Amino acid sequence: MKFKAIVTAVSLTSLVVLAGCATSFPLGFIYTSVNLPVTVGNGEMKYSKVGEAKCQSMFGLFASGDASINAACANAKITKVGWVNQEVVNILGIYGSYKTVVYGE
To answer: What is the pTM of this model?
Structure first.
């Protein structure tokens, strides 16, 4: 019985500690909502267009969409990219939303 309790405690601790490992963005175990830079172009460039592209995942089992920089540029007819950001929302791994935002001309 004591062995089971130790194994359970070690397993749960490992799950919490390793939950955010090897991700390209900070990952909260319960909830994540972050805005991150992807790339920066010419800092002097003024932009008049903003393009967005999005993909979603459900239950960590299904994912669909196109959150590529190309899709975001196409959505706003951007030909010169100023900079790119990424917006990430994830709730318990049940729902995930990943959006690429491109600023440019």
So the answer is: 0.71
